Amino acid sequence: MRLPTPSDSYPLQGARLPCLVGGQFVPGAASFDNVSPVDGRVLCSVAEADAALVDRAVQAARAALRGPWGRTSTAERCALLRKVADGIERRFGAFVAAEIADTGKTLGQASTLDIPRGAANFRAYADLALARASECYEMATADGRGALNYSLHKPVGVVAVIVPWNLPFLLLTWKVAPALACGNVVVVKPSEETPSSAALLAEVMQEVGVPPGVFNLVHGFGPGSAGEALVSHPDVGAIAFTGESATGAAIMKSAADSVKALSFELGGKNASLVFADADFEAALAGTLRSVFSNCGQVCLCSERVYVERPLFERFVAALTTRARALKIGGPYDGADLGPLISRAHRDKVLSYYRLARAEEGEILCGGGVPQFGDERDRGAFIEPTIVRGLREDARCVREEIFGPVCHVAPFDSEDEAVQLANDTRYGLAAAVWTSNLQRAHRVARAMEVGIVWVNDWFLRDLRTPFGGVKLSGIGREGGMHSLAFFSEPMNICVKL
Q1: What is the tally of structural domains in the chain?
Q2: pLDDT tens digits, 242-297
Q3: For residue 65, what are the CA distances in angstroms to 81, 176, 186, 319?
Q4: Within 24-73, where are the H helices?
Q5: Residue 5: inside a domain
Q6: What distances in angstroms separate CA 195 from CA 36, 100, 160, 480, one per listed residue?
Q7: Whole-angstrom Cα distance, residue 243 to residue 472?
Q8: Which pTM was predicted?
Q9: Of 73, 271, 415, 454, whose CB has the highest number of CB atoms within 10 Å?
């Protein structure tokens, strides 16, 4: 698989990215610009779907479900998913280039995580769907003949898939693959910030023979645009969404009238707990990664780092030194950090840097915008930042920032560490660093989150449940949990 280089052009350069509705690429009623976060240039224009086009997409999906797609076997659907994975890999370089252009993330991340995981999702869910079992029970009856009960897994119908801009292709495929494996039809709305990899996936769907209406793509924004029209549509049976908690709450209100099934993976204000007996180098490297990966734009990133007091000063000094050494630059510069997704998001993160100072925090490193003296100064770059000395009720400690920043604070006991970690409205993830096996199990079980990593971070088995509690989400994705959400169990009782 060939990797793109800086000399390769953006694969959709000069195009107007269309929507895909009922197997046809359509231009949309209006358009908006897709802007590079690296240098601010316009990459392409994107067709914006209005409510009428969203309705066409939903009706096309319903028609596909009533047509041949509704009669396909699990084996036939899974064979098609594998063809989709193959199609992604045939155009691997284009997918990597598109993801880099939209997000500004590094070549290393896009080529080793985002795109490979996207292809792997289709194969993983094909395997899981084929191995899925159903229930069967014999029961006694008064006449002695008995009865047989067996269950079927039926699709929920039209699924709205709404994905964010931080891991656009990975999270898109993470939802689309199990939805299609279960026999559903989908209408996808990617983030307006990152439409390109979804547009390429639409092309692959057409190339490998996915029937018209099974995969539909509508571009646009949220309120007053394609997003609102999609989640409030009465013929959408389920919504799979990853994004901000506030957006999730708004979607719940829109979905309430028609009682749609919801799967939400929302925000986080995740804690990392570093105990004094931890492997110092492993904890240091792991925490650096958990704070600054993807420029801090991962819902699982650690924005609160608590270190046991005997280790605190040494650990914070080393973390600060490592953060200062991180190279900031463009996707092909060999950099450790790329830009934020947009200048608007950078303004938000910078406002928290200013707030940290106003709340009497000490900025140990970063806190500003790097200067390059070239076209990158038109981008959305920002410095990795570490803060200490804030009160636990400070806004910078309580609110999700979603940038390359963390607050560090000491703790004195295991009980205090657990209390600090759980004192948040969010509950997505936590990291625990310790060499004490009993403590590892004890503390992990006490975390009020959906996933805990012990002596690692972002290590994911696709078969395991993923999701959050409190403001961090509803339901679980991954493995059989995804298949359960995207299907309705039906019982058939046969009198013998």
Answers
A1: 2
A2: 999 999 999 999 898 899 999 999 999 999 999 999 999 999 999 999 999 999 99
A3: 17, 15, 10, 53
A4: 51-66
A5: no
A6: 12, 12, 16, 29
A7: 10
A8: 0.96
A9: 271
